[in-house]
Structures are given as C-alpha cells and as structure tokens.
Amino acid sequence: MAVSNRLKNQHLLWRAGFGPMAENAADMDTISQKDLWALLLKTSSKKPEKINVAQNLVDGLFKGVQDVSRMQKPELTNDQKKMIREQSRDDIKNLNIRWLEEMINNEAQLREKMSLFWHGHFATRVINSYFQQELLQTIRENALGNFKDLLHEVSKSPSMLSFLNNQQNRKKKPNENFAREVMELFTLGRGNYTEHDVKEAARAFTGWGFNFKGEFEFRTMQHDDDSKTVLGKTGNFNGDDVLDILLAQQQTAKFITQKIYRYLVNEQVDEAHVQWLSKRFYDSGYEIKNLLEDIFTSSWFYEEKNIGVKIKSPVELIAGIRRLLPMELENDQSQLLFQKVLGQILFFPPNVAGWPGGKNWIDSSSLMIRLRLPQILSANDILDIVPKTDDDLQGGMMEMASKKMKEVTRGGTGKIDWVMVAKIFEAVPREKLLQKISDTVLQSKSRVTDTVLEKYLNKENRENYTKSAIINLMSTPEYQLC
Amino acid sequence: MLIKRKEFLQVGSLASAAFMMPKFLKAFEQPQMVPPGNKVTVILQLSGGNDGLNTVIPVRNDIYYKGRPGLGIARDKALLVTDEAGLNPALETFKSLFDDGSLGILNSVGYPNPDRSHFRSMDIWQSASASNEYITTGWIGRYLDAQCKGCDKPTQAVELDDVLSLALKGEESKGLAFKDPKRLFETSNGKYFKDINTDHHNGEEAVDYLYKTMSETISSADYIYQQSRLHPSAETYPSTELGKDLKTIASLIFSDINTKVYYVSLGSFDTHVNQENQQKRLFTELNDAVKAFVSDLKKNNRFNDVLITTFSEFGRRVAQNASGGTDHGTANNMFFISGALKKKGVLNAMPDLADLNEGDLKYQVDFKNVYATMLRQWLGADDTAILGKKFDYLDFI
In the predicted model, what is the mean pLDDT of chain B? Predict the structure, then answer.
C-alpha cells in the first residue's frame, strides 16, 4: 500500500510537532513534505518568548526552601517557608500549563517538540519555580541549537546543580551524583566509562554551585585543583573541561542520536540509520538542527514501518487532541490531573532518567483513561477518579486534585469549536466523509472497520456525524499511536 | 466437582448466573468451601515516610527521649511488647496480634546509600533497585511477568487505587488498579470498547499491544467483578478508605480468584509538622481497618494463608525538629501479620541510636532480603530471577 501524501505530512507534523491542527489539517493532501519541513523550520526560527511564572527575582529566589535552608540567608520562619513552598508549587503548576499551551498553540512546533525531548533528557525535579523556569528557558532557547552549548548551560543551571547535589560537591568531600549522571544519562550511556572516571570527574566539578540570586557560581576555594584523569585524558581539569572531554567522544553523539531517533522515528532502532546520523551529528559539531534535517528529509523516515507505530506520550496525546479540536477548557488545571493519571507531569519526571516512554505509558488504568479522554473533553463523560496524593514535590501539585475533585472533573470538559473543526471537512462529499475523518485523525494502519464504527455515529446531521466520528475515532487504541 | 460447576455458571452473563444459581448451590458457598493453602499477601504501603521510632518505641533508650523531648512517647503510654519495645498507643490491634503470636516486627530495614527524597526512595523500594540504578519495572510487576506468561488476565497482582504504582508494572504484564470492582467493570465494559476489541485483528506490534491490554482489562474487570460478588465479606469494616479497600480485598480472598498480591497505600505520613495528631489519625485508620480485616480472615479460616506486610519509603530522623515533627530519615521497621508466621514478635535487635549516620539510623536488613523471602517462601516464586540477584532469606515465614 502506498503511503498517501496526507499520511506522510501528518507523520511529519506528529513527530516534529504535536500533530495537525484544525487550521491546517485540510491542506495536508496537497503540500509537499519538503515545503512542510521548510515551514516547520521557519516557524521555529525565532528565539522563544520566556514563560515567566516566578513573579520577580526575589520571589523566585526565596521559593526554593530546601535550597534556601542550606544557604546563608536571613532566617525564615516555618510559616514563611511553607508559604514560599506553596507559592512555588503554584508557580510550577502555571509553568506546566503555560508551556503546554505553547505546545498546543505556538507555531514553533519543532522547537517545543524538541524542548519536550530535552526536558525529559535533562530531567530535574526541584521545588524552586524560579530554577525550573530558568532551566526551561535555557532548554527552549537551545533546543534546536548546539548540543555542546546546551550541555554546558544545563550543567551550570541551579536546577540541575541542586537536583544532582553539586552544590554539596566540595574539594576533599566530593559528591559524585552529577558526575555520574552526566556520563550515564546525559552523554555516554552506561558501560562507556569506569567508576574511576566518575570519581575523577566529580573532583573536576567541585566548586560548581549557585548563589542567592540563582546564578551559577564557581567557588574556587572549594575546587580541587589537583590533576585528574578522565577517560584517558590527564590534566588539571575543571567542569567545563570534563564536559568537553565527554563531547569529544563519538559515543556521546551516538547515544544522543539513538535517543532522538527513538523519540522521533521509531522505538525499534535501525542501527545503520543511527550510525549514519550520529557520524554526521558529530562531524557537524553537534548541530541539533542538522541532525533533525537529516532525519526529516530522509526517505526512510516516511516509510510505512515508521508511521503510526509510536505510542504517544500523555503530553503528546493531550496536545494532539487540543490541536485538532480547538477548545476552551472550563478549568485548565484539569490538565494537571490528566497528566497525573496518565503518568507524565511536566516538571515532575519520575527520576533523573526521565520518562521511559513506549509501552511504559500503558497499563490497564492509564489506557482506559486515555480511551475516555476525548469523551471527557467533549463533555460526554466525567473523570471520576482520585489519584493518590504523593508526598514531596507532587503533594502540593495534586492536593487540588484530591480535595476539589468535583470541581476539577466538571472543569475537565471543554467547549470545542466544532464550527472550525467542520471546516476541515467542508469540501468532502458525504460518502467520503468517514474515510477522510479517519485519515485525518489516525496514523496507524490498523483501523476500526466502518461497519462497527457506523453503529456508534450520530446520523442526525452532518455536524453531529462529524463530531461523533472524531470523538469515537479518538477513543480507540489506534489513536494512541502516531 | 462443585468448584467446576461454579466455574461453569460463571461463564454465563452475570445476570443470568445470579438468576440461575439455585438455592441449594448457594448453600455450598460457605467459607470452608474455599480451598485453604492459597497463599496471598497484602502489601500496605505507608506513604510519606512513617516515623518508625514512634511506631515501635524504644522505651528504654535515653537517646530517643533526649532527641524527642516533646514527641517521644513515654514508656507508660506505649503498648509494651517486650521490655525495651512498645507500640504506638493507637495500634491496639497490633498489640493484640503481637500477644496472639501473629505479628512480626523487623527493625532497621533499609538499603545502602539511602535517598531522603520521597519519590526517589519510593522508586527504589518499588522497583527493588540499588540507590544508583534506575529500573522502570516494579518487583511485583516482574513477579507478574513470571506468573502471567501467556495468560489472558494479569490478575495475579492488583492494586486498590485509581492509578497503578510502579511496583506493579512489569516488562510485559502490568497489574490492575481499581478502587471498586463494580466501577472497574462499568468503565471498561462499555459496549463500544467491547465491539472494537472484537473487531480488531492482527496489526503492528504497538497496536496489538494496546488491544491486548484493552482486552485483558475488559476480561479482568469482568472476572474481578464476578469474583468480588461470589463471597462478599459479611464483616463490618470502618467506613474509611482503607476499611473499604480491605473489605474489597477480603471479598476477593474468599473467592476463587487467582490474585496473589494485593497492594494498597495509606498516607500521608510526611509528618514534618504536628506529627502526633497526624500519625495518630492515620494509625487509628490503620488499626481499625486491620482489626476488621483480621477478624474477617479468621472467621473464614483464611488467616493462615494471608500475609500482611507494611513498609514505608523511609523512616524519620531520630531527633525531632522545631515544628513538633520529624524530618526525612532512613531505615525503618516493617510489620508482618499472619496466622502462619514461623517466627513472631520482635525479630531482630532494636535500632542502635548510639550509632547513627548524620542523625539517621543505619540499616541492618536490606529490604530486598524481605522481598526475596516473601517471593520464595510465601509465593513460591523465583526470587533470584525477579530481583536480578540472590538475596538471603529471612526465617519469619
């Protein structure tokens, strides 16, 4: 079966972004992939506007109570600390929702899609909203730039420094947490370095920390100035030197390329493609945009075996629905609850390794909620569940969810702009309508057969027919794939 | 023969099965009919980091009282179980279980290089990983993988919750999470889902995986709901969340369901502030629910087949903080409740408060030894395969 032009375009939009939107879904039959790719690049070329949630610098600063307590600062009372912690949690909720809005509505789809990748790659989980906001901006600014810059900047961000305890990494009392993860998770991958490399690298990162203002600070007094040997290189290295040593390894390019390939192309890695891509990525000096261009302009990317075979992450699922079905949510905080019950809350990765993805997204509960989500959003169903309240950082995140469940579930519904949705299909004759809707909504080869589907469609009029077809098609296992 | 007949009746639709069930058959649905010997375990997760030192109180330890001038529980208030240990006053049932020989207390359980973050430490407990490795499956999930190879319903492990915990996620199989068997049945048995499920034939791997999960959910939900109605518990439980959950579990235990692991959580025990009241409230909920549950199990002759295990992601700092609470700590105690304990009472030494690591207890028993023991000695599973390594067994079961 030949892959249709529409399917290829939608494939590109789902992988390089968050799927087709109501405004452009009708054009997917005619545009070429080359032109669409050029458009994706162009719309992501501007520097992203910062999402500011921490009201001002001081506000943000005082929010990281746990970090604050370790710094020499004016003593805060417990009530103040509590207040600050709660404020920070609220800020992070806002940051979450506002970034999600960007993924849905911002034309810079490619940038936001890659930012989500780096957000999972450089996974941090800290309570300080200012730190989180700053790291997100670093990621969004560099998402399509150079991986070297990104790695250096992230490594110096207070968010990462505090999450991986580098603030406590001192001469003669090294803390190896960051040094280990930077090798295992951010650059080389397990098995490509020794315990000795970790120990030595940790010494190079001694003295890397941040000050009250949330700025990187190199504390020379705490830095170990003696010679270190990392991956066969010996010298009086500092943290930047070690990062460069890691970047000089071809393995780093391979590790990153492979992870990006799994994120954008297929969970099943094609070794030959990754080999080719990673060499070019390395030779380009880690230009992310070049790597993406290599992927999205290759013919193999559009092969049938790569289309409709990836399980959408919860964020991709929510964003995808909301792109095709423009809607006004009664309560946008309900999206936090959806993220929670589906297993992906932005800014709360499960651990420093990020979200494992793939089949890991799916279990009985999460799948049934996924299948009901379109019904919930279109007000045909309510989400009557209460997730456990976790402690730590999530506790505050979800207290809304457990305490005010009723409001939230009621607010879970949205007002969908069906007029705009109907426009996608206005030129389609009735006898081809179901096929067209199906081809617009689904990427998978497998489809629910028309005869089964027809039983559940509202045939009163064209509008209701379209509505019920879309909602039913979105409530299938097939829709979980892109 | 009778069991077979009952299975036959269950094949039909629910309404007709209930309708068709003759009175004389119902008469056989007595508790003694359930074959004993089907060992199951109920894992009770005390979320948030329960303060172990105010759970099992070292009543002869000066360091304890010195570190907790306000929070320490006086010797004469504690429910003494040995000369040096007393239980929290809210845990009366646990005291009776102790006197009964049905309670085991294991002190100082933890792991090397403890992490004091809730979510990370919970991850470590649930995945049974070392503190510097990241495993995306849980230990019960991997047990499920082994039990449910090629099976059509992964009901060997279930969680009483709306969201499934990492602990129950395997590589291939994942446990089922539900609060109420009826609601599970209703939400997964929509006609549309059943229709598209029947309609689906083989496709690519990913889509097949999704349909397989949906199909398993539908049939498991059906099975669980049917089973939950076979021998509904007649015991009165407290109307708390935990009370309801344990009642659901009891009803399932009395049925013929193949579930071996039940997972349920209670929280939050994160008592940085005003610990006394919060812990007391949660312990009262725990105590009353367990009391009804054990009584129920005993009446139905199943107490010897059930092992209730409690754990928390960490204990708390020895010294109290300035807000009438305690901060995150490390090693902690675990409770084991069953009518069939081989060793009972306080199973090992009380924690050594004179030998601390930055104010926190040093662990003496790795929790993975406990898991290995439960997997091998109680559930008859291959613990080495599930935990990826051989851990010595303890001798309490």
Answer: 90
